[in-house]
Amino acid sequence: MAFSTGKDSSDVVSEINITPLVDVMLVLMVVFILTAPLLNNAVRINLPKTSTTEPANPTKSVTVSVDGASKIYIDKREVDLAALEPELKSVVATNPELAVSLQADEGVPYRAVAKVIANIQRSGVTKLSVLTQPGG
Question: pTM to 2 decimals?
């Protein structure tokens, strides 16, 4: 489509009017700015499955387990939540570089696992690894 300049009907203006293009681009930019923060809130995660990794330091470690009934075990020996911290403190006193491996059943509520992690941290353990199933 050609436009005339008004002087002479044979002169044709070959420039494109970019005002509508700029208007459309500004509207799109505003739409993207408003919707981008909303897209970040829809993150879905599945923690129990990860890829296989090698331990960083193969030192002596203690395994703390939480089964499906929220029972706590230290190396296959059942302990109470209140007794977990003192028992780990005594082990840390003999070996300050103790590494603790935590494994929890997939169906255990997060609250129970968080309490176990808090007790492990208060006992003075500085190396904690969380064990998961391979296949993520």
Answer: 0.55
Q: Could you please report the per-residue DSSP string of the chain?
A: --EE-SS-TT-EE-----HHHHHHHHHHHHHHHHHHHHHTT-----TTEE-----S----EEEEEE-TT--EEETTEEE-HHHHHHHHHHHHHH-TT-EEEEEE-TTS-HHHHHHHHHHHHHTT--EEEEE-EE--
Domain boundaries, the chain: 3-39, 49-134
Identity (one letter) of the amino acid at 89?
Answer: K
- β-pairing verdict for 3-4 and 61-66: unpaired
How far apart (Å, rounded) are the C-alpha atoms in residues 96 and 26?
61
CA distance 121 to 100: 10
pLDDT tens-digit series, residues 74-108: 888 888 988 888 998 988 888 888 888 888 888 88
Q: Check if CATH label 3.60.15.10 holds for domain 49-134.
A: no
